[in-house]
Amino acid sequence: MSNIKNLKIISIPKISDPEGRGNLSFVEKNIIPFKIKRVYYLYDVPSDGSRGGHAHKKLNQFLIALSGSFDVIVDDGSSKKTFTLNKPNKGLFIPNGIWREMENFSAGAICLVLASDYFDESDYFRDYKRFIQFKHI
Ligand code: T46
Fold first, then answer.
1. Which structural domain, as residue segments, surrounds residue 49?
2. Which of 3, 31, 54, 87 is catalytic?
3. CATH value at residue 128
4. Residue 6 has what DSSP assignment?
């Protein structure tokens, strides 16, 4: 069963252009601890808006702040931790079984999500009490 200790910030390679043309980062098989089946992104989130508010039963995810910043508050049913994502070359691995809330989106923030499976509403816990019951079985 996943807990907060299974979450980690993973560095993404960053190639700085020798002629000052900016940076290039890439994500490939050996960087992410699961096989990617789906990619989606959150954008135009108002600064007082929040996303998440659920957990996944089986889905593993990797979140990258491609632009701007936001906070990810994670909760394994026993303890909570806040990660601030604000660099396109650092990502947060969230395994299944973790409740998350996302808030404090900066202007222009883009959250890229790499996911281990296709979208499936039945994979969600959207009710916190049910999530807690599941975690404490
Ligand atoms: C998470 C954070 C980082 C689809 O139809 N297809 C999709 O691939 C996704 C992800 C969502 N949807 C539909 C389902 C809902 O009706 O879009 C609506 C919003 O989805 P969700 O409640 O998952 O949105 P967020 O932004 O609260 O959460 C999303 C991820 O789903 C979630 O796992 O961790 O981004």
1. 4-135
2. 54
3. 2.60.120.10
4. G
Atom of ligand 1 nearest to the CA of 72: 3
Which of 104, 103, 85, 105 has the alpha carbon at shortest distance from 94?
Answer: 85
pTM of this structure: 0.96
136 is catalytic: no
Q: Residue 78 has which token pair?
A: 């026993």
Number of domains in the chain: 1
What DSSP string runs through 15-52?
EE-TTS--EEE---TTTSSS---EEEEEE---TT--EE
Tell me: pLDDT of 18 over 80: yes
Residue type for position 64: I
Looking at the chain, the whole-number percentage of residues with pLDDT higher than 90 is 96
Pocket test for ligand 1, best of 36, 39, 40 (most atoms within 8 A of CB): 40
